[in-house]
From TrEMBL:
Sequence positions that bind substrate: N11, W12, K13, G179, S219, G240, G241
Enzyme class: isomerase
Family: Belongs to the triosephosphate isomerase family.
Protein name from the UniProt record: Triosephosphate isomerase
Reported function: Involved in the gluconeogenesis. Catalyzes stereospecifically the conversion of dihydroxyacetone phosphate (DHAP) to D-glyceraldehyde-3-phosphate (G3P).
Organism: Actinacidiphila epipremni
């Protein structure tokens, strides 16, 4: 779909301190030009401690790189030691926040209810959620990747208006392909991304569904991104490991070259 601007987002996970973050974003700014930014939206999802430094650099040099966080609290303030709120991220002018990444689900027990509450917290403060969904290896082996992922989608988006849903980003990340070097085939990615768009049309309407960006994530690299991006319902990539190398991430942004 020509009407959907691809979104390439780097998920740094727990890597790069604030000094490394500045150097990294400067390298991206050197490597990318206006033509790239006209064609593709570029974002980095960074550790909380990097956000202020990234904001200062992006603001000061008017960079077209967007940035955001990898998680947020479902609560807006209060006695939640160690958490970071939506208002705090909004104050730092974050565009995006990843929600329900498989590592949050796996290591921090995030269930559908928490993911849904965090999505609503993001919308309360003008942040765009990148909602991560996707099946584990056992579910894939049982051939249940579509119903499993659609159930996660339903849970994450529960109670959202069509207007809110219109700006959401969905990241389909099969857990067995994250950080494993095992990339889903383009056909595997399309199967589930297409099913996600079909469900979005059922939940809202076709026009809304056609406008929503659906990313694929799972061992995306410069060498495999073009084939995945060629699929009709894949509108971008959520990139972990390969996003830690700025030269590689620039090549991913230039997937059409
Ligand atoms: C991710 O963290 O969202 C991810 C897809 O990681 P990787 O690209 O390293 O598989």
């Amino acid at each position: 779909e020509q009407s959907r601007t691809p979104l390439m987002a780097g998920n740094w996970k727990m890597n790069l301190n604030h000094l490394e973050a500045i150097a990294h974003v400067q390298k991206l700014a050197f490597g990318l030009n206006d033509k790239d930014f006209d064609a593709v939206e570029v974002a980095v999802l960074v550790p909380f401690t990097d956000l202020r430094s990234v904001q200062t650099l992006v603001d000061g040099d008017r960079l077209r790189i967007k940035y955001g966080a990898q998680d947020l609290s479902a609560h807006d303030s209060g006695a939640y030691t160690g958490e970071v709120s939506g208002p705090m991220l909004a104050k730092l002018k974050c565009t995006y926040v990843a929600i329900g990444h498989s590592e949050r689900r796996q290591y921090h027990g995030e269930d559908e209810e928490i993911v849904n509450a965090k999505v609503k917290a993001a919308y309360r403060h003008g942040l765009t959620p990148i909602v991560c969904v996707g099946e584990g290896l056992d579910v894939r082996k049982a051939g249940r990747q579509v119903p499993h992922t659609l159930a996660q989608l339903d849970g994450a988006l529960k109670g959202l208006s069509a207007e809110q849903a219109a700006s959401v980003v969905i990241a389909y990340e099969p857990v067995w392909a994250i950080g494993t070097g095992e990339v889903a085939t383009p056909e595997d990615a399309q199967e589930v991304c297409g099913a996600i768009r079909g469900r979005l049309a059922e939940l809202y309407d076709q026009q809304t569904a056609d406008g929503i960006r659906i990313q694929y994530g799972g061992s995306v690299k410069a060498g495999n991104v073009a084939a995945i991006m060629a699929q009709p319902d894949v509108d971008g990539a959520l990139v972990g490991g390969a996003a830690l190398d700025p030269d590689e991430f620039v090549k991913i942004v230039r997937f059409r070259d």
